[in-house]
Structure prediction request, 659 residues.
Amino acid sequence: MATLVDQVSKGEIKLPEIQRGYVWKATQTAKLVESLYREYPTGSLLLWKASEVPITREMAIGTVVPEPVVVPLYLLDGQQRLTALHRVFSNHEGAQIIFNIETEKFQNQSPATARDPRWIKVFDVLKGNMVQLAIKRAEQLPDLGMETILERFHALTKIGERQFHMEILEGFSYQEITEIFVRVNSGGRSLKASDLVLATLTARWPGVLGKLQDEAERWKKEHYDDLDITFLTRALAGVVLGRGLSTGAHARLVAASDAELEKGLDTVKRGLQRLVPLLQENLKLSRSSLMPSHNVLLPLIVLLGEWPEDKAMDGDTANGILYWFLVATIKNRYSASTDTLLGQDIPTTREDEPVKKLLTSFGVMTGAVSVTPGDLAGRTVGSPYFFLSYLVAKHAGARDWWFGTEISAIAEDGRKLEYHHIHPQATLTRHTPPYGKSEINDLANLAFISGKANRRISDRSPADYFVAPEVPPLTEAELAPHFVPYDEDLRTAGQYREFLKKRRSLLADAMTALLDKFRPSWLDEHLAATVDLIAGHSLEFQLYQSSWDIGRMVATAKGVGFSWTGSFTMDDFEDAIRQASDQGLSGDIEIAGASAPVTVSNETVEIPIGPFLAIGSIDDWKDVISREKETLLPQSQLPVLSEEPWNGELVRFPASSIE
Prediction:
């Protein structure tokens, strides 16, 4: 094994460009060293003897590697292990692995272990005078004895003599090696789909890794660090393939031409050049790490990357893009079936009027999106509404409670932004009875202020620090942009739940106002036209259900010159909406004795109910179900119905308007 480490130092073992970066943590390195110490199996290595010189990437060993004097081998499987061991043997700062002489355990160095004589650095034993080290430790640890310490040190030095089974591939082209690499890493301990796609791209298009690294570095300087090589690989695959990045995407990329790949990367670059300023300047989103999900950027990169150079973008279209971004984020558009949904959204961006069609496919065109206090109840920092709470404070001009400057996600040092518990955790846990953890960390109890202000406030109650002269005192004008209620009676722990209720209401109104700010005017016109279209029309549901009977929903439709009543079972209705939600599948239910198709298109569900084609998002239909369950009547009150299927024309009717 020491020979392998030496070969890495001499450049005789290299990494081909298809390899991902080094990702192991110090704990993984410690476990590997322990396995070698105990003579446990540590796997094999796969190397390639190339007949053609491939593009390589540096190993993360922290030293400059010379050009080898022999033909190098290229490491295909075992990079993490070999890099980790090289770091241990070279005393790399990221691999300060230590050995407990008493317990024979391994871990990474810490300030505490550095002062404990029972721990010794593995590197010191491997490279030092073992006898002198043992003598010194025997003086410090007399209970162990010199013989035991020497025995354990000797076993530790033996890790350099442990052997890995090696398989060397010869006579394979770079393209074939890439396919082998993908297969090897698709079995065993899988890489991410993006890693496998990147491996394929480097074989298909040598030098692409450097291009992606340059692009990632550009956006890192703009505080958009999350636009890294992994994300850019997803974006490139999305442009070229027109869909999300599934584990089989690498196979389809093999068929892409060089021209398609080059054009795809240009599209990604152009899309980001247009999208990032839109987010930074219009939405005031200065840092990518604030976003709960970055998948929502992928369709927009395609849309803006393929936007004609000679076509100006009007304000409504720009607003529509940001409106879709916000709604897709808070609705967790890609929380499940990501690849399938991207396969719907990316092609939509290539149609005429793409922004309108994106909003239509997401069900936004059927009604204005709003946020209610109920939407915020029980939410914490992991919720997309937490992200939205930052944006509304930023747009309101919220200022820091110490420096008096506007809050900034890119501030450094003492001005660095933190989220602060308005009612401190200490006062809430000391209250009788104490509040629960989730309630204490409720989104409505969090405000964005600097680390300096947060430390000055410490664990004081708002009843104290709102008026404390050294904070400085917080006036109503200073609290308002943070949407913190100024009511004095809400500042004590006893009134904490009332405080949450009041602040949720303020935040919900602000979030709805922010969404309205970016809602394009043509969407308002569309909604107005929809309202006009159903003027004088109504659709009312009433659920009749008892614990011993199947529930039945009665639908009553009225309009100028007609009235219709029909019914369907609640079980069939719920099953159809559940199938649409969980699997994206269409179905059917029996209404007024006739089969009615339940048509699913992306997140929109259409159901012909009497004279109406009721259309709404899945959430709209779930709201209908929830509301009807809350207002159900007993089965005994179900009226005798005279039902007939509707045979006339259908009028589009928004599900959100069902009464």
In short: The chain has a mean pLDDT of 86. DSSP finds 28 helices and 18 strands in the chain.
